[in-house]
Amino acid sequence: MGTLDTLNSLSRKEQVIRKAAELFRIKGYAASSMRDLAQMLGIEAASLYSHIRSKEEILQSLCFDMATEFRKSLEEVEKQNVGASEKLKNGIIGHIQVMAKDLTASAVFMNEHRHLSAPFLRDFLLLRINYINRFKNIIEEGVKTGEFKESIDKKLAVMTLFSSLNWMPQWYDPYSHIVPADLGKQLADMLVNGLKKEG
Amino acid sequence: MGTLDTLNSLSRKEQVIRKAAELFRIKGYAASSMRDLAQMLGIEAASLYSHIRSKEEILQSLCFDMATEFRKSLEEVEKQNVGASEKLKNGIIGHIQVMAKDLTASAVFMNEHRHLSAPFLRDFLLLRINYINRFKNIIEEGVKTGEFKESIDKKLAVMTLFSSLNWMPQWYDPYSHIVPADLGKQLADMLVNGLKKEG
DNA sequence: CCTACCGATCGGTAGG
DNA sequence: CCTACCGATCGGTAGG
């Protein structure tokens, strides 16, 4: 019974967080009220605080859980003993698959993390810069081994990559015929080979 | 005197809007209060309403003024009698130059437009889809003439392009050595030719 | 999970 | 551009 209560309580907390993600995605964190969220769940605003400590705690869960998934995905790719363009491709596919598993949380992760308060915002940004740098390392590796052009601007390349990746939740249609892995492949191909014929 | 009053009044309104853009960029529109804005200008919150009608009117100015600049830039490029990859490159350079002229307003345009109310939000989104479609036409033209691969996903290509373009205000350092036109050239080159050597 | 409620803050107006 | 102020709404707590 104690166990069941705990399980139910956890599960209800998850429900609250998932509904909150939908709300934050549509209206933005700052414009979303706890009364909005309560209404979506069919309860009173005050009742939310049985499950969560504060509005920001929800945002923290969403942002750091996604960050963990991204990190795990990249660590798998880094272990692979393949060339830089293959590694970059797999990193891109992994990132897109993590996003596709929860497009709503991904959009919140991207657009609302700035509303984290200290020290969470700082921690979050450190995780992000670390992640970006690890992709930059893959690109630099590719330049060293001669797979990629020496003339490319590595900062520009990695920023372009992340811009493309991170906006995907805003336009990707989960009901379209294209699966996340294929989307990742195409995106990687476009970035590596370009639009031009005979690339 | 009447003329001078009007000029001063216009200029003060511009100051209010520019300060508001800075505030909205940092805190987001919803989390920015009129009292914050007033403090930045050294006046009382109520005094703002001598210059603007409402908080949202400021957002409308920022979003639609930027949209106009983007449209004008693209219209110039469309007149050019050049190939698709050259036209795409010039469109990218133009877009980046418009953003670079006012990075603050560009960031607000990108991240805060969703807080526009009806019917402004709808009008804004229509302008945006039109702009995107005109870039898509350039890409389709390039596929037809054989400049670009037939295998590319045009929607993905144009979305990747806009993701890259629109995130530029978030990481571009206006005090860096790289000028906007060169940044545009490099971005266009990366997209058209890719990262791979012998592209 | 609810009722009842709190202090703080919001965008905006009246009147000068 | 200011003082004085309004009704609405905010995140959150007490106590059950």
Task: Walk me through this protein's architecture.
The structure is a homodimer of 199-residue chains. By secondary structure, chain A is mainly alpha-helical. Chain A has 2 domains: 4-48, Arc Repressor Mutant, subunit A (Orthogonal Bundle), CATH 1.10.10.60; 56-193, Tetracycline Repressor, domain 2, CATH 1.10.357.10. Chain A has helices at 2-27, 34-41, 55-79, 84-101, 103-112, 120-144, 154-171, 180-193. Chain A is elongated, with a radius of gyration of 20 Å. Chain A binds a DNA duplex (16 and 16 nucleotides) through loops.
Defining key terms:
homodimer; 199 residues; mainly alpha; Arc Repressor Mutant, subunit A; Tetracycline Repressor, domain 2; 8 helices; 0% strand; DNA-binding
Please render the helix and strand layout as text.
2 copies of one chain form a homodimer.
Chain A: H1 2-27, H2 34-41, H3 55-79, H4 84-101, H5 103-112, H6 120-144, H7 154-171, H8 180-193
Helix pairs in contact in A: 1-2, 1-3, 1-5, 3-4, 3-5, 3-6, 4-6, 4-8, 5-7, 6-7
The structure holds a DNA duplex (16 and 16 nucleotides).
